[in-house]
Design goal:
This protein has about 425 residues and is α/β, with parallel strands linked by helices. It is about 20% helix and about 30% strand. α1 runs parallel beside α8, α3 runs parallel beside α4 and α7 runs parallel beside α8. The radius of gyration is 22 Å and the shape is globular. It comes from Nocardia pseudobrasiliensis.
């Protein structure tokens, strides 16, 4: 990080609208300043934390001179100025947090999809609070064997685990124990209330504990690559329940971290998909087949649900959970490559997809719309990627007819969006 420009300078700023990423936008001397820990309309004293030149820099509000009426005492003790990058909005009321997210989603849709629409961010039912919702937690271990989370935009580890997000019991005894330096811990509390703790072996880049961000890409690549696992508590196999069906999935695999999210999204998919008996449906990026199960109920034994997922372990877990549904065919493929072979084949009545954070992208959207399904249900966890994909659908002749957004990650800037798309008449 360069030691030039405004870095370290204190600025008095009036904060404007929220931006995508957990900050508010301010301006000073013709430059844009992205300010964390503030709310729209507040007058703050902010310290510039990063200035690499150009049109913008980053800062943290270290003193609130004129607070917003939506400001409360922060519920997270470690995410304030200089702290972790977890709870971006822990100092705002639950209603204000959702309004901030709705503003961001609406702006991304206007800017990237040319779609001007009202957005309401809803709590995940039946809860409306902002704490004790997270059932899956991933921690890093510092050089002294203490577990924690990364400081914001840093590889330094914050070992204070007074986390308001974790469901009760998830972090009991974690801070008091010592773990393998450089390792990561995955903690999952499953649908039966059992806790699983799995230690992932250290990576070479994972042993770094300083603040140098030059190795960020290498560190992330290593962290998501194959790593040996050691189960320290539980079986490492988490029981999960959606719509009365039981899954058993790897504690280190993907599952929605909010304890109510999988059921919530599954119910919406079932409502919007509206697949008829005997129909063909696709579930892309299907994971363990949560949505495929709901589609199978609709198409019946005479229909077919094809689920495509790149993770072979997730597919295996899905096959096991759905073995009583012969109309479901889960396959381990890259979605992009599989779609290349589908043009001219049977036309699906409905496609459901929940792509990774980067979104589906042009290739996938083009291939899906070329098949001319009657309905597409698209789920996205990043407002910008979601909006880009909506714009691609609109260009390809599909229009969004339903939109719902959920506060699936309370106290953070993250938000989950779901859209129903249908061909333009």
């Amino acid at each position: 990080m360069a030691d030039t420009g405004w870095e370290g300078t204190l600025l008095e700023l009036r904060l404007g609208a929220p931006g995508h990423g957990g900050f508010c936008v301010a301006r000073h001397d013709g430059r844009v300043v992205f300010v964390r820990h503030g709310l729209p309309g507040e007058l703050v004293r902010a310290r510039v934390t990063e200035d690499r030149g150009g049109s913008f820099c980053r800062a943290e509000a270290v003193e609130i001179l004129e607070p917003s009426p939506d400001r409360i005492e922060a519920t997270c003790p470690v995410s304030g100025p200089g702290g972790a990058g977890c709870c971006d909005f822990a100092f705002a009321t639950a209603d204000a947090q959702r309004e901030l997210k709705a503003t961001v989603v609406a702006e991304q849709l206007r800017r990237l999809a040319d779609w001007d629409t009202d957005v309401i961010v809803e709590p995940i039912p039946p809860e409306a609070g902002t704490d004790r919702w997270r059932t899956r937690i991933r921690l890093v271990v510092d050089a002294d064997g203490r577990a924690g989370v990364h400081r914001y935009r840093s590889t330094e580890v914050v070992t204070d685990l007074r986390c308001p997000q974790a469901v009760p019991g998830a972090l009991d005894g974690i801070a008091e124990s010592r773990w393998t330096p450089g390792a990561e811990l995955v903690i999952a509390v499953d649908g039966d209330g059992l806790r699983h703790i799995v230690e992932l072996e250290p990576t070479q880049s994972g042993r770094r504990t300083g603040g140098d961000r030059r190795d960020t890409a290498a560190r992330r690549a290593a962290a998501h690559g194959p790593r040996r696992e050691r189960v320290l508590q539980g079986s490492g196999r988490a029981a999960q329940y959606v719509a009365g069906r039981r899954w058993e999935v790897a504690a280190t695999g993907f599952w929605q971290p909010h304890r109510g999210a999988a059921q919530c999204y599954s119910d919406i998919v079932a409502e919007w998909a509206d697949a008829g008996p005997g129909a063909l449906a696709w579930d892309l990026y299907s994971g363990a087949g949560v949505f495929a199960a709901r589609l199978a109920e609709q198409v019946g034994e005479d229909g077919q649900v094809l689920g495509i997922e790149s993770s072979k372990p997730a597919v295996a877990d899905g096959v096991s959970a759905l073995r009583d549904l012969p109309q479901v065919d889960l396959r381990a493929h890259r979605v992009e490559r599989w779609l290349d072979d589908q043009l001219g084949e049977a036309t699906p009545q409905v496609i459901v997809l929940d792509p990774p954070r980067a979104g589906a992208g042009k290739q996938v959207v083009a291939a899906m719309t070329a098949c001319v399904p009657a309905r597409i249900v698209h789920i996205g966890c990043d407002p910008a990627a979601f909006a880009r994909d909506i714009g691609l659908y609109r260009t390809a002749g599909y229009r969004p007819t339903r939109l719902r957004a959920f506060d699936a990650f309370p106290a953070t800037h993250h938000v989950e969006c779901l859209a129903l798309l249908e061909p333009i008449a």
